[in-house]
């Protein structure tokens, strides 16, 4: 007997969507050892992420809200992992 289940939405949170967009654009990456997201400080990658947010925001979210969330995520990240020892 075939049963159907309701599918989850494509995104669970706007922040999660923004992190995914930033990773795909190459603006952030994970610390290989600890998994923390780190800012790559690449202005071209940041602009690509903003362009994606403007052109293809999640359903029910305005382009301005999507861009704001991408920028909020970027502002919350540093370029170093908080668990890695300073060199």
- Average pLDDT reading: 87
Number of domains: 1
How many β-strands, per DSSP?
A: 2
- Number of helix segments? 3
Decide which structural class fits the backbone: mainly alpha
Contiguous low-pLDDT stretches (5 residues minimum) are: none
What series of H and E elements makes up the topology?
Answer: HEEHH
How big a fraction of the residues is strand? Answer: 5-15%
Helix content: 40-55%
Radius of gyration, whole Å:
16 Å
Shape: globular
Q: Biggest sheet, open or closed, and with what strands and sense?
A: 2 strands, antiparallel
- Biggest sheet: strands side by side, in what order? 1-2
N→C terminal distance: 60 Å
């Amino acid at each position: 007997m075939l049963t159907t289940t309701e599918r989850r939405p494509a995104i669970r949170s706007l922040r999660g969507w923004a992190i995914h967009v930033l990773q795909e654009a190459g603006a952030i990456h994970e610390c290989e050892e600890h998994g923390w997201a780190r800012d790559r400080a690449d202005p071209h990658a940041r602009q690509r992420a903003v362009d994606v947010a403007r052109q293809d925001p999640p359903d029910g979210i305005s382009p301005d809200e999507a861009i704001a969330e991408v920028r909020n995520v970027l502002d919350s990240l540093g370029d170093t992992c908080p668990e890695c020892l300073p060199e």
